[in-house]
Specification:
Blueprint lengths: L1 E4 L5 E4 L6 E4 L15 E3 L10 H10 L4 E4 L1 H9 L9 E2 L5 E4 L2 E9 L11 E7 L2 E3 L19 E5 L7 H11 L3 E5 L6 H11 L6 E2 L7 E3 L2
Parallel strand pairs: 3-4, 4-5, 5-6, 10-11, 11-12, 12-13
Antiparallel strand pairs: 1-2, 1-14, 2-3, 7-8, 8-9, 9-10
Length: about 220
């Protein structure tokens, strides 16, 4: 698989043969080219840095067959949005397995990480896309029926946000124990901040950590 990093929390996943593709969390800072030729879009939650209805409307105008998947609350909101006439998003729930863009996907988690005083308290689904884990705005560790952490090939690791500390990011890597980790949710980091974050995460010897530059890709073996 090929992982392509777009602005902030948006990542595109393509199969090596180019026949399968899915885009996760194209928000208000996402480059429109991220949608080029993509077959399906997954949204973790409704916040603007993860979802831009006008950007989605433009992508749907270019490709009316584009499929959208998200949790039931947001699916209902998108179906009623005036700019998205005719859109019928597929609602998925925590624990549900489904196919999107040709990939096997499972929804995990369920709630947004909190900043303070129970805020924000909104739905947030993470997605496991054939071993690639995008948690959205959460620190959820996906576990199997036996309670053990699931095997994760690549963790798309949140790097910055009002609900996140560096310690929590490191603890998430240690809990998930992925083969590889790539930072996302990083638009709020200055170059100095990103370098500092990378320096700490590179010290996690059990996980291969690397930053994918904007518009660039990493290939999973």
């Amino acid at each position: 698989m090929r992982l392509t990093k777009y602005a902030h929390a948006c990542v595109r996943i393509d199969s090596s043969d180019g026949g399968r593709s899915v885009l996760i969390d194209p928000g208000c800072w996402t480059e429109p080219k991220a949608f080029d030729g993509v077959r399906a879009v997954l949204y973790t939650h409704a916040h603007a840095d993860h979802l831009d209805p006008d950007l989605l409307a433009a992508a749907r105008a270019a490709d009316p067959e584009l499929q959208v998947y998200t949790h039931p609350e947001l699916a209902a909101e998108l179906a009623a949005h005036p700019a998205l006439s005719g859109l019928a998003p597929t609602a998925v729930r925590t624990g549900e397995s489904f196919e999107a863009g040709g990939f096997a996907v499972r929804a995990v988690g369920g709630r947004h990480a909190q900043v303070i005083d129970n805020h924000p308290d909104c739905a947030n689904l993470g997605y496991l896309v054939e071993g690639v884990y995008h948690p959205g705005d959460s620190l959820h560790v996906p576990r199997g029926h036996d309670g053990r952490a699931e095997d994760v090939r690549a963790l798309l690791l949140p790097a910055s946000g009002p609900w996140l500390s560096l310690r929590e990011a490191i603890e998430m890597v240690r809990a998930v124990r992925p083969e590889r980790a790539f930072p996302i949710h990083d638009a709020n980091l200055s170059p100095i901040g990103a370098e500092n974050f990378d320096g700490w995460l590179e010290g996690e010897s059990v996980t291969r950590y690397a930053r994918i530059e904007l518009g660039e890709s990493a290939v999973l073996d």
